[in-house]
Every structure is written in C-alpha cells, then in structure tokens.
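Quick log. Single chain, no ligands specified.
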Amino acid sequence: MREDVVIEVRNLTFRYPFTEKPALKDINLEIRKGEFVGILGPCGAGKTTLCLTLNGIIPNMVQGFIEGEVRVMGMDTRKVPTREIAKYVGMVFDNPEYQLSQMTVEEEVALGLGSLGVPRDEMIKRVREVLKIVGLEGLEKRSPFELSGGQQQRLAIAAALAMMPTVLVLDEPTSNLDPIGKQEVYATVRKLNEERGMTIVMADHEVEFMAAFADRLIVMDKGEIVLNGPPVEVFKHVDLLESIGLRVPQVTELA
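-> predicted structure:
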C-alpha cells in the first residue's frame, strides 16, 4: 500500500448466506488520506455492504462467502479483530437509534472509550471536545432519546469521533432525517473533512450534496462499481446515471 492510502480493496466479491447473487462483485478501490469519497447508487446496489467491509464488520461479524481482500492501514480485515480496526475506522449507520443505548449524551460518547481503557481524565476531555465539534455542547446531561433526529445522528458521529479514527464511514446517515436534520449532518461532515482533514467515506442518496463536497464519487449498481472519479467527470455520464435511477444535479446539467 502507498503511504497515502488508508483503505485498499482488491478483487472483492461477497455473497450473503442463502443467496445466489453476490452483493459485491470484483470491487477494486483505494481510499486516500484526507479524501471525501461519496458512494451513490440505487437501493440494492451494494452501498451498505461495501461500507460494512471497510471496517471489518464483514466478514468478522456478518458472515458470507468472500473472495479478495480489504486492507485498513495495511491490516487484512480477515486476520485482525474488528475492535482493532475500529481504532482506525469509525462507523455511523443510517438509523442513529440503533447505535444509541446510554442514559445521557456524555455517557453515550464515553461508552466506546471505556472499552478501550481510556483514562477518566482523557475520557472527559475527549467527550467535551467531540461534542463541541458536532455542536452538541451543553446537552451532556440530556437523554439521547430526547434529541431531534439530526442531533441523534450528530451524537452518533461524536461517539465515533471520540475513538479518534483515521477514517469515518457513514452509511446513508441522512435517510431518516427531515431537511433540517440533513443539513445539520452535512455541515458536520463537511467541517470534519475541510477543517480537520478527516477521511470521509459516505454513502447517500443526496446527489447535490455529494456533487458539492465530495472529492470523488463511486457509483454502484448491482454490486459493481460502474463509475469512479471526480464529480464533474462522473456527472457527464447522464444516460448511465439516469438508467440506474440517479438524477444528475441541475447545475451539472446546465454546465
């Protein structure tokens, strides 16, 4: 792996148990440090499955038939425990409630740190820092389940950030949010990438946001990568994108 490559996927094929068709077919991909990579595609394209391979959930926690390899910071995800990979790759899912379980906001953020054995003083410092980053300072004692959808998703992001990962993977983090909640999450993700240089891999349906902020777009269909490049190049393939149900942003069409 080159020094600037944080995740490398080589010849990856994955099929879930009791299914005939692979969810991923011959995926080859590199994620470089500091990149914002957007993953687009219709439902069933393989976006979520690909995200789950990037932090070792597949194949370590979700079983299936797998060929090829995924390397995170040079580590083969088939040979390294998921908890070790989680130090480098944080994961945020589409429904924040699935990730929230504690009585207060601060306890939610501290949960993963406790499992890593982080000293209490350092834990308090990190909790305070990440809540400020995502704009939830002052809500430390609030129940996570009293927050709005956008706030809950930002809390899930904060919990992932507290682990100080190199890469943050977000699987359709705005799919269950109203427009205000979506904007809150987008602003947070953009800030992490632009101001803090965090590597972002984000699967989403919001084409306009991806067009504006992603460095590179990966378009998937039926488990395969059909396009991979800068947004301005990807959106030139209007017929292909429309054939798989993706709308080209209006600004791109006018250009």
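The two ends are 37 Å apart (CA to CA).
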